[in-house]
Amino acid sequence: MASTMDDSRHKDATSSSTCFSHFCSSALRAKTLKSSSSTNNSSDGLIRRLGVFDLILLGVGASIGAGIFVVTGTVARDAGPGVTISFILAGASCVLNALCYAELASRFPAVVGGAYLYAYTAFNEITAFLVFMQLMLDYHIGAASIARSLASYVATIFELIPALKGNIPPWVGHGGQEFFGGTLSINILAPILLAVLTVILCLGVGESSAVNSFMTAAKVVIVIFVIIVGSFKVDVDNWSPFAPNGVKHIFTGATVVFFAYVGFDAVANSAEESKRPQRDLPIGILGSLLVCVILYVGVCLVLTGMVPYNLLGEDAPLSEAFTSKGLKYVSILISIGAVAGLTTTLLVGLYVQSRLYLGLGRDGLLPSIFAKVHPIRHTPIHSQIWVGIIAAVLGGLFNVHILSHILSVGSLTGYSVVAACVVTLRWKNNTGNRVSSKCISTWCEGVLCIFLVACCGFAAGVLYRFGTHFIFMIVAVVIAIMACAALCFRQAYSDPPGFSCPWVPIVPSVCIFFNIYLFAQLHYEAWIRFIILSIVSVGIYAFYGQYHANPRLDETIIYHMAPEEDRH
């Protein structure tokens, strides 16, 4: 009997050890990508329809929503006319992140996946899956929230018709009809709008790109018109004092408006549908971001010049500013621009989600149905319908606006991981390292330095948030600089093919530090969400992902480059 029990315990221990060993070997495997001169335009694949202008409009469409008419004034109430500097600083920070994205988009120019793919290649499978889950929660809740806002704006425009003014019930478009103490909040217009956009996306990338290009062009024209008309009503005396509440509020404003630029990374997920991805993707990423910076700065200058910063409204500052100047027709145009902005932001968000699901479906981390592409439309219809259903359920039944404070975690996580990927992939292409450690490998040493930079960024953010003495923040910054110096001098780097991010590893390190610094500024519930979702993600991977992931990942996987004529 005792011998039987011992054998049973031994088998259980052996089984547990085998399961853990399998989990580790699966979680730590990375994807190896090589170039090929073949094309991937098969009958069941995505089709290359997007030119450089389409990609720029895709990035602008994702980044500029109704926020350009609201966030500018909201931040200006604290930063004053210095909000212009806030947008420039935030834009400069995003440009550094965009440089990292541009290098990797050029490095893997014909593969869908974005930050997920980069993490899979630079680090390992579990890291890539965690990045996907953090991004996807942001995308799902964000799409539902934007759909509700769009429904509200559309209802407002309908109310310009005298017969409908004041007669549209809440459950149609304005907010929602609440039941069970607010647990449910019914809104039928949001799912209808999502269904329309999902159908457009399922028709094909050409059709959806045409809609995005038209709506984005209309939005940009309206913003430019607003800037031009408003410039004639500017009183330069309103720009003085430029920073009425001090420089600190300008920097604080920069951390807030940083999220107004989020969206340029959507361009990286269109890799398999770009005509000349190696050339056009970096141009699309950086070009769209620069357009956004110019438009935001222009609106800030006009807004703070028209009305004293302390008299700006809270809900619709730009519309109220023009109404106060007797230009009510401009307010109507702003509402139309807001509808166009929200439409393109929602359209591109749904597009990106489906391409990420497509990437995981191909790799086996999600069911294979997500990997299927329509043979005629050349779109991942199953993935597209799935993300549309998720957004419709959330937007139609729940008041997802209350979850806005836990968003942006995925974007900051994705940006930080992409910056780290730029550094580590430069090592992987090197045949040798200048310095090797006796205790740990040079690669692990470098990863530890990157992690230290991130920790210092979080520490600096927490210290700033709780108002501790500035000397402690300086210590965190100094430690981060030392870790960056170790990355510079204890690693060997090679130049990548295609677009190259300048000053590696300094630029990626600055990105990581600032992104995690911003992460520390988020609501504490966002931190809890990050931890809980990470634990859930590991559980999903342990029970499904590790057993269904493509077994070829231990070998070299060849993804096809764009056709030769498209790359030149």
From TrEMBL:
Native organism: Gossypium hirsutum
Protein's membrane topology: Multi-pass membrane protein
Question: Which family would the database say this protein is a member of?
Answer: Belongs to the amino acid-polyamine-organocation (APC) superfamily. Cationic amino acid transporter (CAT) (TC 2.A.3.3) family.
Q: Which InterPro entries does the record cross-reference, listed alphabetically?
A: AA/rel_permease1, CAT_C
Domain of life per record? Eukaryota
What is the protein name stated in its UniProt record? Cationic amino acid transporter 9, chloroplastic isoform X1
Q: Which residues form the Cationic amino acid transporter C-terminal domain?
A: 499-548
What's in the keyword line of the UniProt record? Answer: Membrane, Transmembrane, Transmembrane helix
Give the Gene Ontology MF terms in alphabetical order: amino acid transmembrane transporter activity
One GO-annotated biological process of the protein: amino acid transport
Compartments (UniProt record)? Membrane
Q: Which PANTHER family has this protein been placed in? A: CATIONIC AMINO ACID TRANSPORTER 9, CHLOROPLASTIC (PTHR43243:SF45), INNER MEMBRANE TRANSPORTER YGJI-RELATED (PTHR43243)
Q: Which residues form the signal peptide?
A: none
- Show the GO cellular component annotation of the record: membrane
Give the residue spans that cross the bilayer. 55-76, 82-104, 116-137, 179-203, 210-230, 250-271, 283-309, 329-352, 385-403, 439-464, 470-489, 501-520, 526-544
